[in-house]
Amino acid sequence: MVVFEFCAENLTLLDKAIAAGASRIELCDNLAVGGTSPSLGVIKEALKLTSEKSVDLCVIIRPRGGDFVYTASEVDAMLTDIGAAKELGVSSFVLGALNEDAQLDRLVIQRLLAACGDSEVVFHMAFDELAVEDQLEAIDWLASQGVARILTRGGSLDATLEQRFAHYHRLLAVAKGKIQILPGGGVTLENRQLFLKQLGVHQLHGTRIVF
Asked: Is the overall model pTM greater than 0.85, yes or no?
């Protein structure tokens, strides 16, 4: 079964996306800055809807737009958001953190993972800020920490599709048997079959993936 994951800004278009074939939702706010944590009220209503429709819901935990280097206060805010979302019934989180050297912030990530407990965790497009060689190492480390999948553009959106497909294949080869790679960024209803065919994957992510 192919999973089309719709990136939803709050409750806007949620009904429409599910009706159009989205079988998983990434819920966020502020898509103009790449997505931030949605409010608890929005999470609660989205859980109701996705539960009724038997659609999986993933909630992004990101305190602001901009970079992925977080202060101690921002990390505490993320931990609080995770705890509150879990109390509502969220069982899948999308998160990530880097340090000032553009490397994975392993200590912060481990704290976030501990707060998530046995919930599913997805590492978001902070992954794309890593150097290529660091991405390959990050795959192994994130897999060792129990992260379920990595959401990635497969390179810059300014690159050609052929260049991105080549990089995706490199990531998929390293990740095979360890962790899932979730392609996203520029995936649309019109080109999603091309992504599926070229990459041999069974899941895709996007804001225009079902309409």
From this structure: yes
